[in-house]
Design brief:
The longest helix has 24 residues. By secondary structure, this protein is α+β, with helices and mostly antiparallel strands. The protein contains twelve helices and 13 strands. The protein starts with a strand and ends with a helix. It has a domain of about 110 residues.
């Protein structure tokens, strides 16, 4: 029997704002599109269909910078819960937390993480500072402004290093050139990044080892995934790049395959799960998140990123981890939606007391 509630699925209307998304020079850069956004939007009909089998009224809405249209939609539809899949607004990632803040201000319950958590986790250096303050292991890093004048003395970190855009997700800007082994390589790639993106860059000590992803649903650790780099040419760093996620038939796409559950002994698996859950909690995550961890050759885990509201498309790592414990895709979407509905019900009961 369907639950008699109104559900509004909000997602970001896909817009491309960079000339290059995969973090390396491209001959056809003028035609670049952000495949990470377009890929999820293509599944929206499937998501609405699956939720419609569980709830009586389900509609979707593409969020743009015309914020009044979103407010009008919320006020006219009056959803019992918003399924918040907004990751940016017209390509601007910083607006992700602003949309969540709007839901909060207008009093609409929504799935996933709060505005504060989304804002904190988007800033990679801020996340690291919070994690370190709680004693959680994460690689040392610094931030470079796009107009920074680089000197060797500025880089007081141990090579190799990995360079990322400080406030982007979906592996935007990450390629095989992101891992640098000396100052000359760093300076060259910094020049490309600042010219292409004009954004702050985080430079982090690169952990040689295994890449693990820990999906957490309603405070419970799901089976751990590992990225299998078998077949990746030896000269390429074993990292998850934009190509590896989004560019079919690229070298990285063909040789960065997720394995879930990961092959870990019980002691290491327990340790990874505990650290991931600690990171989830100290960043005040709720409902669902993914914690990315590098496991060094000495079996020391380092939290690389905490990803609130990660991709939950049908072919995502999160959906794969849920399936490993018997939660199919419809069940995953229903579970996430029910978490918001339960909050609304509990708030109503508290107000009635």
């Amino acid at each position: 029997m369907k639950k008699e509630v109104r559900i509004l699925v909000c997602y970001n209307s896909p817009v491309s704002i960079f000339s290059v998304y995969n973090g390396k020079p491209c001959a056809n850069s003028g035609n670049a599109v952000d495949l990470s956004e377009y890929s999820f939007v293509s599944q929206m009909n499937q998501i609405v269909e699956k939720l419609s089998s569980k709830f009586t009224a389900v509609e979707s809405f593409a969020v743009s910078r015309d914020i009044n249209s979103l407010i009008n939609k919320l006020n006219s539809f009056q959803p019992d819960a918003v399924v918040n899949f907004v990751e940016s607004v017209e390509g601007i990632t910083n607006y992700e937390y602003c949309v969540a803040a709007l839901f909060e201000l207008l009093g609409f319950e929504f799935t996933g993480n709060t505005a504060v958590t989304l804002g904190n986790c988007l800033n990679k250096l801020r996340t690291k500072s919070i994690l370190k303050s709680y004693g959680i292991n994460t690689p040392s890093a610094i931030t470079l402004e796009p107009d920074e004048i680089l000197t060797k003395g500025k880089i007081k970190l141990n090579y190799p290093l990995i360079m990322k855009l400080e406030e982007e997700d979906a592996s935007i800007g990450i390629s095989e050139f992101s891992v640098v082994n000396n100052f000359n390589e760093l300076k060259k790639h910094f020049g490309f990044l600042k010219k292409t993106y004009n954004k702050k860059i985080i430079v982090e000590e690169y952990i040689v080892g295994r890449e693990l992803n820990v999906a957490i649903l309603d405070g419970k650790v799901l089976p751990i995934s590992e990225i299998d780099f078998t077949g990746l040419p030896e000269n390429l760093p074993k990292i998850v790049t934009y190509d590896g996620k989004w560019i079919e038939n690229s070298t990285y796409y063909n040789h960065t395959k997720p394995v879930c559950p990961a092959k870990l002994n019980s002691k290491i698996k327990s340790k990874i799960g505990k650290i991931a859950l600690e990171a989830y909690n100290v960043m005040n995550c709720r409902d669902y998140a993914r914690v990315d961890i590098r496991l060094s050759k000495e079996n020391i885990p380092y939290v690389i990123e905490v990803n609130p509201n990660p991709d939950v498309s049908s072919d995502s790592g999160f959906a794969r981890a849920a399936a490993a414990i018997g939660i199919d895709y419809s069940g995953l979407l229903e579970t996430i939606t029910n978490l918001a509905l339960n909050r609304k019900r509990n708030d109503s009961l508290n107000q009635a007391i």
